[in-house]
Amino acid sequence: MTVLGDMVLGVQSVAARLQFRALGGRTHLARQFTPHPFHITRPFHHPGDAGGMATLYLQSSSGGVYSGDDLSLDITVEAGARAHVTTQASTIVHDARGRQGVAQTVTLTLAQGARLDYLPDPAILMSGAKLRNRVTLHLGDGAQAILGDAQLAHDPDGDGRPFAWLENEIEIIGPEGTRLLDRFDLAGADWPARTGGFACSGMMIVAGGADAGAAMHHAAEAVPQTYAGLSVFNDRDIALIRFLASDGAALSRAMAATWRAAATALDGQPPAARRK
Amino acid sequence: MTDVLPLLRLMQTTDSAFPSGAFAFSSGLETLRNEGKVRGAGDVHAILTRQILPRWLGFERPFLKQAMEAADDTDRLLEIDARCHVQNSSDRLAEASRRIGRSLLAVHGRIGTPHVSEFSAAIAQAGRGTAAGYEPVVQGVVAAGLGLSPLQAQAGTLNAAAMAFVSAAVRLGCIGAIEAQSLLAQVAPDMARGLAEPCPDRAGSFSPLSEIAAVRRNTTHASLFAT
Predict the structure, then answer these.
(1) Which of B3, B36, B89, B134 gets the highest tally of CB atoms within 10 A of its CB?
(2) How much is the pTM?
(3) Class (C level, CATH) for B35-197
(4) Could you report the per-residue pLDDT of A198-208, keeping only the tens digit for each?
């Protein structure tokens, strides 16, 4: 990105790629390309995780995302491989200052029998922020995914200036075509009215394991300061729990609890806790 | 005569006495009332203007408009309906939409509204069964069959949605009958402003409070409504 004072002169398009492969009962990072601002930890394995799942943390070396950023991330999980990809912290979407805003495009491709838990921390939408977020999950036969998506609005100066807008789209595509498309366009000024005053919104989706829905719902109901509802689509083998949370801490607890419940339901054993 | 006839048919088909089955759904209001989140007219007004109307304008309206434009092309209608199917990410709202849509198909099929029997046959032939026939898509087909203008169709169906919600509020004891009419009068300018905005090219919905309420499994109260 070329910056001259506050003036962004160009769009920064950056594409990162990760590819996971199963070898000898464990999943490894077979390929990676993570240009700035992407940064990753070394993948590691939790002893308590099922099936040799690899865990990898995405990091940002830029302190958030800025207007003009056009960031894309492609994650491929090869047949039979299992990966857990999360972020080190929330992504701060900075004030666009009247410019074009941020585009984030994530493409997740799971081959036959693969498993991916993709759990980014919430996007923090600062006053004036503009974010176009698109996540597309391609699901091969027998593949399973747990997918988290969450946002919270933050007005650091307390002057009532909302984020500018959010376009959010989650699409799940199976071999036969689109199974689910959850999308919305929202002006930041409408956020409090639509959320009923809750500061945070999120959802957890299980694709390829609708039976996990009941466990997610039970877990979400136990998290204080949240309001959650489960939808189950047995015809497409998808469970989706949507929740509102009063603050970032409650949102994080809801995300962690529903992921843990979903992973336990899919694997038959609880996953190792992910520390941040 | 030519202007009045479609208007008369619009009033018939969007009247609360028309057997669409919409009376069985409260769009989450019953849960919100049972959980103490809705207590009176002010809360009903807030849910209607901040949840129900935005969802209709952002989600139902584009499907209605697209279906109306494609009413004589059953392949295209099936595509639009399938898109509505995958975009309905709240299971009970999706089920409600299908139930109302199929009721409309059945009634309009029997009274001979143009395009309707062809769409019903296409759904059956495609083997889509109970996964098809979403309310806004059927409403678009019906509107085209009745010769309505796009604005007439949208105004009529939006008003029907508002009336159904307010009727549910009355039956739940949230508001009285006179308050209900006052509320409808209050929100009419909101609906007019919404319809004056361009119809979105792509459907989308962010009304999480009512969408969550509509899908919450009720374990503590006997339910009057299906959503």
Answers:
(1) B134
(2) 0.94
(3) mainly alpha
(4) 999 999 999 99
